[in-house]
Task: structure prediction
Amino acid sequence: MPIDPDVAIGADLGESAFAWSASDVLLYHLALGAGAAPTDPRELRYACEDDLHVLPTFATVAATMRASEPPTVRFPGVDIDLAKVVHGTQRIVAHRPLPTSGTATARTRIADVLDKGKAAVIVQETDVVDAAGDPLWTATSSIFARGEGGFGGHRGESRRVPPPEREPDDVTDVATLPQQALLYRLCGDRNPLHADPEFARAAGFDAPILHGLCTYGLVAKAVTDTALEGDVDRVGTWSATFAGVVFPGETLRVRIWHEADGLVVTATALDRGEAPVLSDAVLVPR
Result:
């Protein structure tokens, strides 16, 4: 089915109600590698319920923690083969600190569909409110569908955030686990691209790759721990472009520049000659 931007853009994807518990938050944090230093009090705030603090990127999985089927990419005016899809960008705006448990309602719409020639980009926006109707977070994401462009849509603007032309203020290395993708898939993303070697090869990768949202979360944690003293409540907005894949077991180098408007971040894979992983990344503290 070809993409029909006239049908897709602005399409209301409806409301969904969901709930989460402290155990869901703990699983998510552990899937990001939290608790690697199990006696560090700052790590225990991610990995133990006694003084649990919620990393705002939990918003990316809160509504889908119970999902056990591979996702589909079927929306009004859009029907895409899952094997052609990779995550393009992600942005979370935390309107206030996330509670350790709660109930909420999400409403999602297709904000835009871009024609990049050889690929299509589908942009979704989700607003989430708590049981009282008060805003919790807004999530904006885009998926990049290879081979699905050329449908006559508009190309959109390029939103680049180049790092400053000086040495970074902070540099930290983050080791991923060989089984990181197998852990993270328990947070509700069962896409076989991240677990099935044959599926990954058919999609053009030598091996299963790490979920982009896992990379997004673990880099957010690294920036929070390094530049914000581990204070998750100071994370206001976190946005990034997925510039390349991560293979589980690789080590990422995270560079941070302290700028007036926020923290500019890059992440590269050391095992592949510092291949770019995240770019155009900015964390805006509260």
